[in-house]
Amino acid sequence: MTWLAPHRSYREERGAVLVLMALLLVVVFGCAALAIDLGNVAQTHQGAQDAADAAAISGAEQLSSWPTVSEGQIVSSVESYVHENLANVPQGNPAVWTSCPPGSIPPGFTAPSDASGNAQNCIAFNAATSPRIISVAIPPQLVSYSLGKAVGVSGVNLSATATASIGAGGTAPCALCSLGQASLQNGTINVSGNSVYVDGTLSCNPQGSITVTGAGAGIEVDAGGVTCGKGTFSPSPNWNAPFINDPLGGLPDAPSFAGLTAQPDCSGGTASPGIYNNIGSCTLNPGLYVIAGGVFGGNGNTSIAGSGVTVYFTCGTAAAPRPCASGGQQGGSINAGGRASINLSACQLSACPGGAVQNLVLWFDRNDTSQLDFHGNGQLSIVGTVYAKSATLSIKGTPAGVAGRCGTSSNFCSEIVVNSFTFSGQGTLSVSFSQNQNVLTTRPAALCTLAAADPNC
Fold it and tell me: Are 432 and 407 a contacting pair, CB within 8 Å?
């Protein structure tokens, strides 16, 4: 007897294919939903972390004024700072600021009430008297899934924490800090109020000179005892200075500029906070400006002025700003030549408008290897901290300062942290340091806990 396999009709096979296609569509839809929603979660968490880092540093800056500024006042200020960066986190709402999950506060820390007496558990200090470390937790934020709901997942709560501490005495280690080798050549540096520090050899020519006066006066060079036998120095340099770590290593990698949008190049009139390729002759309204891959400044009669501003330099373009590549990459830069004039001052409020950062005026991506190139005889007046870890400060010429901006006619009323500085010809640089106009030296509290012997913790 011969057995024949049952015959399946075309209609039956077509039905099976339709079932498989329906199942595959569910899988594809679920994967797309997961990718979109997880991307939204990652972006929201990064924004919360950036806000926590910046708020912790802002709070640490104010700890140096304790007890004139109370813990409650610092708490209120930090809440306001978080609100400026994350508008959906309200200020002064006890129901929100008591919602941080257990473990948000480090062991041994205490969380006081704010200046209005509202209890909260998201902001804490390491001591009831003489606090030196602040911990900031962002209240949980619900990130709703848009497509994930189709597969039964509604959303997730996100939070972020950060700690920061004031350095010893809450003061910067130097007014002009070069984190690598530097070239004085025949240039002239005049500094008051703090020291000049070079983490490496300092090359110089016979007409080169460095003069440091006032409190904290000193010339510190970590050159392993290799002296520069040319030039004039006052006071005598310490050629065996210890290596200095990045004094602003506690700053976040970048400010939060998620709320800013791309703007056309500004070459005249008034500019508002935003993301730019280039800014030339403009008056800047208070706030945060991002220069992505372009130039801030110009030659000839270029004139830029702004009060209450932070200018951040990074890579990419105005339409697509991005961090500079690890290991170094040229991004946004400063160029001022001829009779160009640049007059800028940082915001000095605890909660700055438009995303500006308190006492921080020029801020470079940590991997941006571009230059701060001042090669003319125009006017240069900068008030606030200049942080350009991988960039070079280049001076050629003698730009004029503005009398009275920081008690002198210095070019910079600043703490300047750069990778190196270099002079061409007989350029002149004048720096006057005042701590109340600059970012305090802050470090993550974890570093101070692990390195208890570190005098800066």
Answer: yes
